[in-house]
Design goal:
By secondary structure, the protein is α+β, with helices and mostly antiparallel strands. It is built from two helices and five strands; from the N terminus they run αβββββα.
Amino acid sequence: MKKLIITIALIGLASGNVFGQSYNANESTPLVNPKNNCRLRYYYYPNLEAYFDTQKRIYYYKVNTQWETAQEIPNGYRGYSMFNKYNVMITDYDDDYICQFINIHKKKYPYIPTNAPKKQPP
């Protein structure tokens, strides 16, 4: 399983997609959550506190207090690193303004750095 994950990550990096996700814009049938019938449209990146819209193929991220959109995350945004590409598929919202849920998603999917120092038992 570990080899499969590493292989998929390497293919994503080799294709030039820094987030390692694939999306076929020509798909005729979007993925749908069977529990609530929402299209699976957004990815949330806890380390960036940003979203990717698979339908419009744009990122939403904050600059100061304003939400910005772009086809790519700017270099150096929030200390972005190619190795911090943890993302979460949002399964309960498919409308146009995902940014209104940032506080909920920050609590539900907190960013936990993998290189954080581990606490030693007393």
